[in-house]
């Protein structure tokens, strides 16, 4: 590498913040606005921020797990998450399984999960006792249940649609109100209510 190129890279680095991965422009000394009050690790040539005791995590700023032979960082008190307090969640009752227990003190793999309520479906239940595929078939879409109101000859008609299987293609009206040709036109103009016939309730 030529001296000119080396000087150019040094100049480029001098315009950026001191800390690793920060490309923000220098504001004070050799730090950017964000890092201006952050300390530097005491170890020579280390461009990390101080974590504790004037050292970064890599150089001992964070305490190590006190469990014999473990070099992980301490998380809870003096131990890492592997050697600290056990999780409050119960584990599967099958020997050697470390997964969380669900039903019958077992994980899903060992029979603790619920199966879909639909007959002959061997998929695990996810939503409301149904698998993902069958839960979509059980609950109507929001747009199918959205209330509608229409105005016919100055009167407001409130129509609260139900899922199409409950409609069976009919709009039930009070016989005292009568049926209007405008009503049929409005019902069929709404894409949710297409192919709905206007009949009287008996």
Short description:
This protein is of the alpha+beta class.
Structural class: alpha+beta
Q: Averaging pLDDT over every residue, what do you get?
A: 73
The dominant shape is flat
Task: Report helical residue fraction.
Answer: 10-25%
Q: How can the largest sheet be summarized?
A: 2 strands, antiparallel
Low-confidence sequence ranges = 4-12, 162-183, 192-202
Going across the major beta sheet, what is the strand order? Answer: 1-2
Number of helices: 7
- Assembly annotation: single chain
- State the distance separating the first and last CA atoms: 95 Å
Order of helices and strands: HHHHHEEHEHE
Q: From the alpha-carbon coordinates, what is the Rg to the nearest angstrom?
A: 34 Å
How many β-strand runs?
A: 4
The proportion of residues in beta strands is 5-15%
Question: What layout of secondary structure does this protein have?
Answer:
Layout: H1 3-14, H2 57-61, H3 108-112, H4 132-138, H5 142-145, E1 148-152, E2 155-159, H6 164-167, E3 170-173, H7 181-189, E4 197-200
Question: Can you offer a commentary on this structure?
Answer:
It is built from seven helices and four strands. By secondary structure, it is α+β, with helices and mostly antiparallel strands. The chain has a domain at 142-200. The strands form two sheets. It has a two-stranded antiparallel sheet with strand order 1-2. A hairpin with a 2-residue loop joins strand 1 (148-152) and strand 2 (155-159). It starts with a helix and ends with a strand.
